[in-house]
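ESCALATION

Customer reports they have been waiting on this structure for their group meeting. Please prioritize. Original submission:
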Amino acid sequence: MPVTSPANSQVRSRLSAQGIGWRWTVMALAAVPLVGAFAYGYLLPMAEGDCRFQHTYGFFGPGCGLTRSFVAIAQGDWLQAIQWHAFGPLLFLLFAGSLAQAGVELACRAPLQHRWNLWRVLRRYPLGLALLAIAMLFYYGLRLWVGYATVPAWIEALGSWRFIQAGVLQL
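Update from on-call: job pushed to the front of the queue and completed.
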């Protein structure tokens, strides 16, 4: 049965059983890294250098530093979060936004309007998502270069290079 909003005459549909299941799944998947970040930040000791990807392949992966970045955000240290992984804050906010949206939609038993619906906004701009993926790959290549290659002295003198290098060398 459709739901009519009193503020306008738009009709919104109710969530189907499949839609409800999807929201619960999104909430569970989005909550895991967020709860883990707060747990590691305040309750559990975080093991240093215990990355399975690094042990297996001998170099760090594209997601190395994300857990530490999330923990830094949970502790309120956004600058350290960016240093651990530049995309950490963005991904943290996407997880938090997805969790909030799924929770609101489950409470209302209806999807959010188009302009407030994070998932529809993301699907609406596929070129933006493709550019974001390219930027993440470029950033990963830059981090590999910082961690394993030698660079000219003038690049090492740059403050931005040292900022990235400080985070990478701690991985």
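Sent to customer with the following note: The chain has one domain: 15-142.
Escalation resolved.
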